[in-house]
């Protein structure tokens, strides 16, 4: 089915956060570069964007984030050594990373929040719809979460956010969504229109138990709204606040995506992701499973 809506080619990764939850590991290393099994967290998100047809990656960085740029760059020294040693498998792995994408970087000089980070990408994105991925949220899914969201954009031309049902008590760690109207019959009953959103509400005041997860497809309207968004929760410019304004002007859809989401910004979530992803690996899974079974838990 053809559509007239512009294709989404650009994916923005806010990555300027300090990573204080992972100190001391993040003292001299960005949290986005912590490895899940053998791949930095941010690479999972970049691969999801690519698998969803977005090959123009924009990373919003800050002080101390140079290793992210090095990671996605060509490493001549490393490639030469691997070539000399005949390590063709590893060479392919290393080359794949730098070959896969076109990356631009923009610095967020002040830590003024997620909304501010997204606004930094305005000139690089231009006047077209784009995606935002929060690398902390690693989503393991048969069909990439972003691609599931694209299916809705392609039919509606509207902004789409990913949501997940969470226990009531947990909603205060997320943006909470207030659905309006009936559940949309299309897309397997997993989509609703968003009426309102609140950033990290106390559980008792939350409009629902639907939590915003770190995947957004946004029309460029969001930039104009972000420019007008005052500092909100925590004194920061919140993307959630700009989305509330967007929902008042344009349709905004929420998708309960299919897949398993890991909050790797949390220590327990990081450990769980490591175990689950390792268990799924062809080269490690069976030995690792046997090892876990042998632990006297
Ligand atoms: C951010 C958003 C929040 C969202 C969450 C998803 O919060 O502000 O609305 O629910 O990501 O991971 P953070 O976790 O960065 O504090």
Protein topology:
Layout: E1 10-14, E2 35-36, E3 39-40, H1 41-51, E4 56-61, H2 66-71, H3 76-84, H4 88-99, E5 102-107, H5 114-120, H6 122-125, E6 130-133, E7 137-140, H7 145-156, E8 159-165, E9 175-184, E10 191-199, E11 210-218, H8 221-228, H9 239-249, E12 252-256, E13 260-263, H10 267-279, H11 285-294
Parallel strand pairs: 1-4, 1-6, 4-5, 8-12
Antiparallel strand pairs: 2-3, 6-11, 7-13, 8-11, 9-10, 10-12
The chain binds 1-O-phosphono-alpha-D-glucopyranose.
Distance between the termini: 53 Å
Order of helices and strands: EEEHEHHHEHHEEHEEEEHHEEHH
Q: What would the CATH topology of the largest domain be?
A: Spore Coat Polysaccharide Biosynthesis Protein SpsA, Chain A
Shape summary: globular
Number of domains: 2
CATH architecture of the largest domain: Alpha-Beta Complex
């Amino acid at each position: 089915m053809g559509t007239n809506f512009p294709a989404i080619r650009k994916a923005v990764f806010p990555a300027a956060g300090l990573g204080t939850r992972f100190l001391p590991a993040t003292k001299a290393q960005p949290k986005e570069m912590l490895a899940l099994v053998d791949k930095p967290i941010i690479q999972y998100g970049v691969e999801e964007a690519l698998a969803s047809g977005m090959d123009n990656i924009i990373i919003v960085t800050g002080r101390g984030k140079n290793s992210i740029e090095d990671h996605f760059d060509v490493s001549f020294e490393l490639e030469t050594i691997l070539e000399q040693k005949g390590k063709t498998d590893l060479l392919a792995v290393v080359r794949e990373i730098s070959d896969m994408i076109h990356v631009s970087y923009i610095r967020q000089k002040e830590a003024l929040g997620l909304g501010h980070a997204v606004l930094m990408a305005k000139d690089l994105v231009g006047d077209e719809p784009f995606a935002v991925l929060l690398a902390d949220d690693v989503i393991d899914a048969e069909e990439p979460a972003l691609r599931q969201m694209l299916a809705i954009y392609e039919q509606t031309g509207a902004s789409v956010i990913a949501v997940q049902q969470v226990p009531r008590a947990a909603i205060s760690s997320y943006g909470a969504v207030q659905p309006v109207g009936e559940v949309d019959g299309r897309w397997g009953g997993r989509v609703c229109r968003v009426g309102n959103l609140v950033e990290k509400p106390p559980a008792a005041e939350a409009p629902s138990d639907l939590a915003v997860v770190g995947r957004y497809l946004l029309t460029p309207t969001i930039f104009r709204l972000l420019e007008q968004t005052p500092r909100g929760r925590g004194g920061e410019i919140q993307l959630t606040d700009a989305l509330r304004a967007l929902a008042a002007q344009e349709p905004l859809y929420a998708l309960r995506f299919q897949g398993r989401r890991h909050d790797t910004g949390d220590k327990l979530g990081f450990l769980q992701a490591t175990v689950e992803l390792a268990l799924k690996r062809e080269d490690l899974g069976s030995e690792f499973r046997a090892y876990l079974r042998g632990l006297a838990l």
